[in-house]
Design a protein that fits this description.
heterotrimer, A mainly alpha (about 300), B alpha/beta (about 525), C mainly alpha (about 350), A: about 300 residues, mainly alpha, ABC transporter involved in vitamin B12 uptake, BtuC, 13 helices, globular, B: about 525 residues, alpha/beta, Rossmann fold, seven-stranded mixed sheet
Amino acid sequence: MGDWVPLVLSVISASTPLLLAATGELVTEKSGVLNLGVEGMMLAGAVVGFAASAATGSGAAGIAAGAAAGALLALIFGVLTLTFLANQVATGLALTIFGVGFSALMGAGYVGIALTPLPKLDIAGLSDLPVVGPILFHQDVLVYGSFALLAGVSWFLYRTHAGLVLRSIGDSHDAAHAIGYPVIAIRYGAVAFGGAMSGLAGAYMSLAYTPQWAENMTAGRGWIALALVVFATWRPARLLLGAYLFGGISLLQLVLQAEGVPIPSQVLTMLPYLVTIVVLVLISRDRTRIRLNAPACLGKPFYAAG
Amino acid sequence: MVAAAAGTAALLQLTGIVKQFPGCLANDRVDLAIQAGEVHALLGENGAGKSTLVKIIYGVLRPDQGEIRWRGEPVHIASPAFARRLGIGMVFQHFSLFEALTVAENIALGINDPAERRDLKKRIVEVSQSYGLPLDPDRAVHDLSVGERQRIEIVRCLLQNPQLLIMDEPTSVLTPQEVERLFETLRRLSQEGRAILYISHKLEEIRALCERATIMRLGRVVAECDPRQETARHLAELMIGNELRAPAHRAAKAAGKGARLTVRGLSLRSDQQFGTDLKDISFSVAGGEILGIGGVAGNGQTELTAALSGETLAERADSIQIDGKLVGLLGPGARRVSGATFVPEERNGHGAVPAMTLAENAFLGAFRRLRLVHTGLIAAGQAAAFAGKVIQSFDVRTTGPAAEARSLSGGNLQKFIVGREILQAPGVLVISQPTWGVDAGAAAAIYQALLDLADAGTAVLIISQDLDEIFSICDRIAVIYQGRLSEARPVRSVTVEEIGLLMGGAHPETGREPSHAHPA
Amino acid sequence: MHIRLEPRGRRSTAWAYGSPLLALVLTLGTAGVIFALLGKDPFLSLYTFFVSPLASATGRPELLVKAAPLVLIAVGLSLGFRANVWNIGAEGQYTVGAICGGGVGLALYGDGNPLTLPAMIVAGLLGGMAWAAIPAFLRTRFNANEILTSLMLTYVAQQLLIYLVTGPWRDPEGYGFPQSRLFDEYSTSPVLIPGTRLHLGVLVSLIVVGLGWLVLAKSLIGFQLKVVGQAPRAARYAGFSERRLVWFSLLLGGALAGLAGLFEVAGPVGQLTPSISPGYGFTAIIVAFLGRLHPVGVLFGGLLLALTYLGGEKAQIDLGMPNAVTGIFQGILLFYLLACDLLILYRVRVGQRAPAAKAA
């Protein structure tokens, strides 16, 4: 009866970093900025979070440090693309390359060190319920955080004036500027938030998922998060669905291995990447839907005259 | 200086405004005075400096020198929000609307004070209805017509109770009937004591609506007057600065050559998000004839131009014929080889690549008909020679074929592109918005070139939003509305009113306007 | 303090060449700071990193050996980037090229067939092309973003390589290590100059630079690539097929990346292992930008970044620095380059904010 509880738990832990990073990138892209550096920011968050936690013994410090690292890298990206008007695709790639190198350099001294994973919350009484207990009431703070943040972002974007302004900048930055909104400042904020979320996602990986640091440990999850935003057609609700769909793939990998299906392990490892491609294709082929939902100014630099 | 009523300061007074851009002095010591309740025209050609001046008034730009006084007190209008607080509202020529958002969301974005955003939907309905511009607050902007979108802009301003309402070329996208409705609203606002600054280059409208006019040319104020006391011709001369020359009158041609461009039953779904589907369009243009297709922007002109040039393929090969060849399913290259050349609406990024040289741009348009490619390699010398020929024949002011396209002024670049297409000796020329954004001198040269081309036996099709232009050089006129084309009539036998009704979708005989429910 | 950007109105050719140089200088300065932070003497470290590889007689030809794959890949990328076709998966195409070419070599192992190497070259080229054909197809047919699809395929290719060298293609005499047999003499590229490791791939890369220049500057398809990247509507107006240009860009990039992969495994590496590339496919992106997306510039950019690889290896040996330093410098160089490129189109004005309106 409870056999599949560990499987569901593994789905949740696989989906959480994707959800965190994709939520952040959603906000960034809704403001019109395409930040391809998610992978680099996640790795930076992972290594910095790990280092901070190892140094202080505190998981909270690790989480905060990871988010800060992601935000800082994102701000470098912001300066280059928003103030220096560099090409967003190239700069995002530069951010990834830099993040990979930086994390490898900084993480060299931390390979092989084990930390205690982030504590799981214990909600009095509820955590002991069979089945539902471990799944719903016994997760670490970042898992709950991922849901809360997604809900918060959704409320912010669609129910507040500030969120409306952000969406308008992604739709037409010239019109928003003509009204007098500080396009660049708001984009900086969106980019920094996206970076912090990616950093959080990385910190989750090194502090909770496998509480260890290894070079390149995100293994492309940052890129998958980018694909998730497209899959969700830039809507928060679908993002949740997408992230858990991908988490489900890790489930599939475990099940296939457990059942002893004779597929080479490398093929199982390929699965998330192949599924990402399939998902991208399915969503992208509906050009009208993409056009109606994608922020019209995505990727376009903004230059204010006068 | 305008003499104010004794003891009353002007509502808005600009003195000595200067604004410099790299390579262009947009405003050169401009003075302007507007009284409360006055409908004041700001008249000038494209590039005269009107838009810049008005952006300064609205706080989008800051002047380099000069003083602004509001009700007699000096002010620094630091931002549009500041201007709105003063009581200045502005309706831009190119709407600043967010297509993916609703009417109410769009208006909410323009309001900084959260208190004012309460009950917004209710207030939108009230205000829009009471001024004769009804709006549904929950509709998404991309579902609305251009006239309805302008209403959003106007209602947005009215909600903030402006004392000065600036309107920048408001009628360039309206049918004549919509223009009348707008004028009624503006007159009503003026009666309420609000001032209106009306920017336009349309002389008849200004004479019909405005009490005072300030005329600008090349960044300076050249005259102030009461437009009701002036003839349209005198206003135009003040605006252009020299005697108007009508293009050489064409001898009426017997319909000699047969149809060189034939379009039959062309129907096409638009691939643009907010585009217009083409529905069963049929017409033909004979050799030696100039056909003009008029219409308000957004009624399918872009789709039609793309369908004719081959950038969008038709559904059937016989939908489009060039000199008898069935080209409907062929791309732009094959259509050029068949004898047609094309001048698109947009110079920058469509008709020419801004960062490339004139020689490269000449190659871009002419390489097929002039065979400028040998075994996959570009004949650069021949391309440059052709560019030189275009530059010379069309008096393009530039340093030579090696100059980048973006270094040319709008008029010169347009002359270059038109010249490039004409010097390929086409049997059919399709040209869209031939003189949009072009100064009067270049426009006259382009008109003459088109007339000469037609005289030489080419079929010329002009797609334009400028009725004056069509009436001055075309033989026949048809009107495109919501993707359908009216019958083409000889220009001599049709009146502006009939055309205006056609542009608004009504039947010219009955004059009845359709209700504003949109066809599915 | 207020920074304003004033558009120049035209590209400054001086800065188009000057920007990479300025970026390089800034990178060197930052590198010195990073070395100091790592507790190493900055000047010694900079010397070790950037100068000492060139000082020795074996060092200089080695520079060309390291540059060859970068240049090959980057020429293909630079043409594609000009057309706004972002082939980020060159690393995967390199891998598949190595797999296909290497596979032919292993299949003909010990046969002594003189056509082995030519067959391997063709296989490598076709393999890389085929791998790049997937994102090309997905973009033209389904409008799927080629950045993400080509990148995902990189991970897939890597897994494929690991599978092959741990399984079916593992060297039976290799003591169980995940690697293939060492290629025999017929499967290995000849050494061009004795005493060096200069292989056929180096020569091919130089030829490709020349051909790339020819295509870009003189051919119709090069012109089409430029137009489609700068003004897609003008490209459609002129009848250029964007679909065909996407295919061309990706197939070319894939072919050259596959070639690079083949020459590496048939040359310096000598076999198939999981680590046949220190990230050439990604570094080539930096080389392309550094070289201003121009084949001749790419040659210089490739030499410079090859230097950083050699310098990184030397620094690891001589100074005990971690290998990851190389990656950081490459990333920083690209950052600075992107920032300095601003100067090509804009002038920077620093000063007091101009007052809104001065009294007359």
